[in-house]
Amino acid sequence: MDILTYKEIGMKRPRTMCCSIKLFVLCHGLLQFSQLLYSSYFKSTISTIERRYGLSSYSSGTISSLHEVSNSVLIVFVSYFGNRVHRPRVIGIGGLLMAVSAMMLTLPHFVSQPYEYDSVLHNRQDICTVQRNSSNLESCDREEKRRLADSNNLWLLMGSAQLLFGVGSVPIQPFGISYIDDFAGPGNSPLYIAILFAVSVFGPAIGYLLGAVMLRIYVDVDKYGLGAEQELRVSDPRWVGAWWMGLLITSGFLVLTSIPYFFFPRRMPAEHNVIGSETDMSDDFKKPDVSLLDFLKMFPRMFVHLLLSPLFLMLVLAQCCFSSVIAGLATFLNKFLERQYSASPAYSSLLVGAVNLPAVAVGMLVGGVIMKRARLSLKIIPRFCVAMLTLSTLLCIPLFFMGCPTQKVSEVNHDQIGQHRSLSLCYSNCSCPATAFNPVCGSDGVEYISPCHAGCTNFTKDPNNTHRVQLYTNCRCVSGSQGSARPAPCPNSCPHFLLPVILVISLASLIACFTHNPMYMMVLRCVPSEEKSFAIGIQFLLMRVLAWLPAPALFGTAIDTSCIWWKRVCGKKFSCGYYDNNILRNRYLGLQVGYKVMGIILLMMLGWKVKRTQEYSLEKRPEGPL
CATH 3.30.60 spans which residues of the chain? Predict the structure, then answer.
C-alpha cells in the first residue's frame, strides 16, 4: 500500500524543514519547560516581592494565581477552535505573549524609586538622637507616599502581566498534545507525550534554583553597584534580592523556544500514514464542522451532564483538594521555611528546588509505573489512592511539633515593664520613626524593632568592613549597666529542624504524587469515549476555578492571620514584620491536612460508589486493568 502524499490529501508541500513530529515533540517540551521555569521562578520570589513592595501574603497569593482567571475564561473556546486554526502558529504566539508578560513583571523595578531600607550609615534617623524634633513621628512624608505609589503600580503592572500570561498559556497544552496525537505514528503518541512531560518536568526545579541564585544579588545592583551588598547580608531581614533578573532570563527562554513554531506546517503527514487508514488521518478531516453558536448551546448541556455524574464529580473534587495542597506548597513553602526556621530566601528556594520538587516529579513518574505494572482496575484505584494519601497525611503530623518558638520581641510579644517602669520612657525622647524596621538583638536576649527602639545612642563599625555596623552601644532599653545590641535578629533556637522538615515534606509529597496518574486515568475511564476530550477540559476548568485560583489566596490569608506586628506606611498596613510561629505553623500545615482529609473522604465515597454500582465502567471489561 502506498504512502499517503501531500497531493492526495489536498495539501501543498510546506516550504519548511520542520516536518518531523519528533522535532515538534522536542520543541514543545522545551516550551513547556520554559513556561514552568517562568511560573516557578516567579513563585520562588513571592516573599521577596512582598518585602520590597509591602504586600500581604493574601495579595501576593492573589497576584501569583491571577493568570488562572484569563486562562479559565478562554479555555472553553480553545476546545472549539482547536482544529480550525494553525495550531503551531497559535502556540508560538502564545509563547511570545508569555515572554511579554515576563518582561512586564519586571517593570515595577524599573519604574519604582530605588529600594530604601533603615540604616544608621545612610540616615541617623535609625538611631536614638535625644531630644530630636519629633514632628516627623506621625507624618506621612514624600518618601512614604512614594512607597504607597510603588505598591499601587505593582498591582496594576503585575496584575496585567499575569492576565496576559494566562492568555498566552491557553493553547500550549491542548494544541500541543492534540497536534502530537494527530500526527504521531500508531502507538507512538503515549511515548511522545511521556517524553514531553519528562523534558518539561525539570522546569519547576530549575526555576527555584534560579531563584536561589538571583536572590543572592542585591535588588538595585543595576543602580547602586555593590554598595548595599557590602552593608547588608543575605540573611538580613532588610535584604531584597534581584527578583527581576530571573524574569528577564525566563523571558529570553520563552522567546527562543517560541520561534520554531512559526516554521511548522498546519498539517503534516502522520508517521507511517497510509491510504485508507482512517485512524491515521488528522482530526481536521474527521470532525464535522460545528458552528460557534451551536457549540455554545451544547456547552451548558454537556457541562451539566458531566456534573450529574457522581463518579466524575467526586473524582474531580478530590483532585481539586490535592491540587490546592500543591498550590499552597508551590506558592508559600519557601516563605514558611524563611519565617519558621530563619532561612534566607535564597536558601529556602534552593531547598524547594533541589529537594521538594524533584520528589514531586519522581512521585508522578513512579505513579505511572505502578499504574502500568500493577494494572490497577477502576475498583482498585480509589483504595490505592486512599492508602497512599492517608500515609502522606500521617507523615505531616510530626511537622506540627517540629517548629521554632517565636523570638521575644520588645513591644510585640514581650513585656519588659517589670524591668522598666514604662518601656516607652527609655526611648521617649528618641522620636523613633513609625516606619522604622531594622531588627537588633539586645545583650539581654530580647529583640528590638530597631536600634532606636532599643534606645541605642551610638554604634561602632566593623573594622574589617566599614560598610557594616559591628555593635550598637549605650542602649537604654537593654538590661544591664552598659546595654548593647547586635545588628541582626536574635538567633533562631531550632535551625537544626530545617533539613528534617523539608525531607519529611518531600517524602509526604512523593507518596501523595503516586496517585496523580491513577486518578487522571480514572477520569478518562469513567466517561463515554466521545466525551473524553470535553471531560478533560471541564476537569481542568474546575481545578482552575476551585483549586489553582483560590488556593494561593486562601493560604496567604491563613499566613496573614498569624501576623503579630505589621509594618505601617502612612497609617496603612505595609507588610508583616513578625509572625507568631506556632500559629503560622498550625494554620499553614493544618490547612494542607484539612484539604487532604477532605480528598480522602471523597475518594472513600467514590470507592463505595464504585463497589455498589454495576455501571461504574463504560468499558467492556469493567474488572480489567485500565
Answer: 423-486
Amino acid at 495: P
Q: What does the alpha-carbon distance between residue 602 and residue 245 come to, in Å, rounded to a whole number?
A: 43
Classify 415 in phi/psi space as left (phi over 0), alpha (psi -120 to 50) or beta. Answer: beta
Residue with cell 534581584: 242
C-alpha cell at 314: 467526586
CA separation for the pair 187, 100 (Å, rounded): 37
Residue with the larger pLDDT of the pair 607 and 140: 607
Of 321, 392, 406, 331, nearest to 359 by C-alpha is 392
pLDDT at 419 over 80: no
pLDDT at 22: 85
Hunting for cell 508569555 — which residue is that? 98
> Would you say how long the chain is, in residues?
626
**What's the CATH class of domain 423-486?**
alpha beta
Q: Are strands 447-448 and 456-462 parallel, antiparallel or unpaired?
A: unpaired
Cα–Cα distance for residue pair 536/177, rounded to 1 Å: 12
Three-class SS state of 577: strand
Query: What is the topology classification, in CATH, of domain 293-404+494-626?
Result: Growth Hormone; Chain: A; (1.20.1250)
**Is the dihedral angle over the CA atoms 170, 175, 181, 185 positive or is it negative?**
negative
Q: Among 516, 623, 626, 539, which residue's Cα sits nearest to residue 311? A: 539
Q: Nearest Cα to 376, choosing from 389, 388, 363, 385?
A: 385
3-state SS, one letter per residue, for 384-409: HHHHHHHHHHHHHHHHHHCCCCCCCE
What class does CATH assign to 1-115+142-289?
mainly alpha
* Span(s) in the chain for CATH 1.20.1250.20: 1-115+142-289, 293-404+494-626
pLDDT in tens, 450-462: 898 888 888 888 8
Distances (CA, A) of 295 to 74, 85, 110, 262, 577: 14, 16, 45, 29, 52
pLDDT, tens digit, for every residue of 152-184? 788 889 999 999 999 999 888 878 877 887 787
Whether the pLDDT of residue 25 is over 80: the answer is yes
Which single residue is written with the C-alpha cell 497609617?
571
* pLDDT tens-digit map of 298-351: 667 666 766 667 787 888 889 899 989 988 898 999 999 999 998 989 999 999
Q: Report whether pLDDT(545) > 70.
A: yes
Those residues with Cβ within 8 angstroms of residue 297's Cβ, 6 or more apart along the chain or in another chain:
none
Distance (Å, whole) CA 555 – CA 560: 9
